[in-house]
Amino acid sequence: MNIDIKGVHVEITDKIREYIDRKLHRLDFVAEHIIDLLLFVSQEGSQYSLEATINFRWGNSNHMRVKNFDIYEGVDKLFDKLELKVLKEKNKIQEHKGLDTVRSPEAAPEA
Prior knowledge:
Blueprint: E1 2-8, H1 14-23, E2 34-44, E3 47-56, E4 61-68, H2 71-97, H3 99-102
Parallel strand pairs: 1-2
Antiparallel strand pairs: 2-3, 3-4
């Protein structure tokens, strides 16, 4: 999974980058299905706008946006949205293609 974090009119400090890296573990259950995760953080006045574009290996792409006055709360809300969207997308593909196409190795039944 390629991760790109960019700041527009705001500097992405090490503290912000580390906070985002800790939140990325919430997406570990689908990491092998995600090609790119692009995060944009911008500041408009006193409000932060956080955007994420996620590209899946089966060609689908999703875009989410969150606005908040606190950057850390915004990151939390963005990852809440990301987690729900990724889970929904994974379930949709499982229903369409069958469980074996997107099943993670640890979720495979034991022989």
